[in-house]
Specification:
The chain is an all-alpha fold and 551 residues long. It has two domains: 268 residues, MetI-like fold (Orthogonal Bundle), CATH 1.10.3720.10; 258 residues, MetI-like fold (Orthogonal Bundle). 73% of the residues lie in helices and 2% in strands. Strands 1-2 form a two-stranded antiparallel ribbon. It starts with 9 loop residues before the first helix and ends in a 7-residue tail after the last helix.
Length: 551
């Protein structure tokens, strides 16, 4: 489609203001990161020394290999589990599938570091399982710490995303293709590997790359469970927290390398989706079949075991939150002490979480409505630029979003560090692309003739948008915003470097309670967060009429 010429009207004014805001709050911070990475820590001169140090020092090369190893291993395991689980729950009749979907979605939306915390509670040196086997059988269970624990937690964090993507792709497979293969004598096992999986391979690869990006940029899991196993995100985090001499220039250089890697992976994912996907009519979706007794039992056991393991963090958190405590230690019995202590000492963190999330969500909704209209209905060279820039947070790891905001807004002329504004800004930058994409998809389903009719009756284009198009978009945008709300209240990576005591949120408070040994308080806060997530999901399902979250 040939881009339209630029019209100097209300929407042109909105476009200019939007581009200005994006340049100030996104492009400028990214430029600050790039500039910092190329400057010498002591002299401030432009140099390639930071990058050369990373590429030539054996320790940092090993750190890069560590990152690639745990991310690749977790992605491979996660892909196997996610694809297998999706195929079994879609192609065959599995009892309790709706509950399984909800449990897996909750495990995907929960912060990954909660998984680390839960596994430490069970298999740490003083964990529940570790103590049980030692006290009753004299068996010393190997601790969960180190590379094994990192891979385990990352695998359990990665497979739900692959599961959802694969289920969505399987639902689009036309049953007539399968029936044609069966009429030619194709057996079930061969049918799956020669027809079904090749059709959805592009989706699986794209989901695997996204999961790899999440694992590659996760710093909370290695920090809590790695015990000295260094990866790139942890090194960047330490550089800006001062644990490695506070060399922010070197940390910025490593962050730039990470952004380059994630950008290449994202471009590869887009190529796979755009160029390698198969078009299917999906007039007759794949129907779930009954399995014979033996395979049916095995399928149910696999599905239930995987779902249970994925739900362990939530189960452990809820159980732990009701255990009696004396100071930071757990003692026999149950009580509400952890909750009482949480509301007494961390009430502001709970309030901040909901308050900041509401503010961020309102801003995201307003920007998504305006930006999506500009990029869909008012396409021109400038709106194309806006569309491209607003997608940058897709490829920027969450922790690096926090870093670029520190670099950009810790000095004049605009100082935001230490204020609620920078926390809300981090949420908006992190989640706007997701809501923007869903809003654009909704707008494309609304005929322009509705708006044109309002204009023909005397409304201005601006008035027609707010009276007609925006009203028609709101139901779909709001349902998508609920998912953004869930991810915002569970966000940690982009805000962990930005908070103060007065602006910390629940995820930050949970993280710090775990680090200082306040496990009961951490569990109580995490239970509140999990409950909020579940309630929000129920509202989403009610509003949309859906029973799952297939992608």
């Amino acid at each position: 489609m040939v881009p339209k010429k630029i019209k100097f009207d209300f929407w042109f004014f909105v476009l200019i203001v939007s581009i200005g805001a994006v340049l100030i709050f996104l492009v400028y911070p990214l430029w600050s990161l790039l500039e910092t990475g190329f400057r010498n820590q002591r002299t401030g001169e432009l140099t390639l020394a930071n990058f050369d140090r990373f590429l030539t020092t054996p320790f940092f090369r090993r750190m890069f290999r560590n990152s690639m190893f745990v991310s690749t291993t977790a992605t491979l395991f996660g892909t196997f589990i996610g694809v297998t689980l999706a195929y079994l729950t879609t192609a065959f009749k599995i009892k309790g599938r709706k509950v399984i979907d909800i449990l897996i979605i909750i495990s995907m939306l929960s912060p990954p570091f909660l998984g680390s915390y839960s596994w430490i509670m069970m298999f740490g040196r003083a964990g529940l399982v570790t103590q049980f086997f030692y006290n009753n059988f004299g068996v010393v269970v190997p601790p969960i710490f180190g590379v094994t624990g990192i891979v385990l937690v990352m695998t359990l964090s990665s497979f739900p995303l692959i599961y959802l993507f694969t289920r969505g792709a399987l639902k689009k497979v036309d049953a007539s293709v399968i029936e044609a293969a069966e009429s030619l004598g194709c057996r079930p096992f061969r049918k799956a590997f020669t027809i079904i999986f090749p059709l959805i391979t592009p989706t699986i690869l794209a989901a695997s790359l996204l999961s790899f990006m999440d694992a590659f940029t996760d710093f909370g899991t290695p920090l809590l469970i790695g015990q000295g196993y260094m990866v790139m995100p942890l090194m960047v985090f330490n550089a800006f927290m001062g644990d490695m001499g506070g060399n922010q220039n070197f940390g910025a250089a490593v962050a730039v390398i990470m952004v380059i890697i994630t950008t290449v992976l994202f471009a590869l994912q887009k190529y796979i989706v755009n160029k390698k996907s198969y078009a299917m009519s999906s007039l007759r979706p794949l129907q779930a079949e009954d399995l014979k007794t033996g395979p049916n039992i095995l399928a149910h056991v696999f599905v239930y075991v995987v779902t249970f393991i994925a739900s362990i963090p939530q189960i452990v958190v809820i159980f732990t939150s009701f255990r009696a405590t004396v100071g930071p230690r757990f003692v026999p019995g149950f009580s509400l002490d952890s909750y009482l202590g949480t509301f007494r000492t961390l009430g502001p963190a709970i309030r901040n979480t909901y308050l900041y999330a509401v503010y961020a969500l309102l801003i995201i909704l307003a920007l998504a409505l305006l930006f999506s209209y500009l990029t869909v209905r008012r396409r021109n060279p400038l709106t194309n630029v806006l569309d491209t820039i607003t997608m940058l947070p897709f490829v920027i790891p969450g922790s690096i979003i926090g870093i670029i905001l520190i670099l950009a807004f810790s000095t004049r002329p605009l100082v935001l560090i230490g204020t609620p504004t920078i926390m809300i800004l981090a949420f908006v930058i992190r989640r706007l692309p997701f809501t923007l994409r869903s809003s654009a998809a909704i707008l494309q389903q609304i005929s322009p003739s509705m708006e044109e009719a309002a204009i023909s009756l005397g409304d201005t284009p601006m008035k027609a948008f707010f009276k007609v198009t925006a009203i028609m978009m709101i139901p779909g945008v709001v349902s998508g915003a609920i998912l953004s709300w869930i991810t915002i209240i569970n966000e940690l990576s982009s805000t962990i470097l930005l908070f103060t005591v007065r602006t910390r949120t629940m995820t930050i408070a949970i993280f710090h309670e775990i680090m200082r040994g306040g496990l009961g308080t951490a569990a109580a806060l995490a239970t509140i967060l999990t409950t909020t997530t579940i309630v929000s999901l129920m509202i989403f399902f009610k509003l949309t009429g859906k029973t799952d979250l297939s992608m």
